[in-house]
Amino acid sequence: MEIKVIEESKKKIIFEVIGETHTLCNAMKDELYNDKHVSIASYMVEHPLKNIPKMIVETDGDESPRNAVIAAAQRLQKVVEKFSKAVSSEIK
Question: Nearest 5 degrees, angle CA 37-CA 73-CA 56?
Fold first, then answer.
């Protein structure tokens, strides 16, 4: 996976998530909306043959969009770890 920042300002960041698909982008989008400072969290794939998701995150300015993305990724990591432990203990 590679992250390429396309545009960044005080309230907005746009970045490509090279090597990932809708699965990760949807999870990130949903997790970003758990942040009270995030006003917009979305992504798009401009061309299906390129299949490079572009995420757009805007905040109210009380938190930088970069920090909001980092925090959402950390929260999502905890959810995945918890899920992995549950699966490991229940499916043998």
Answer: 55
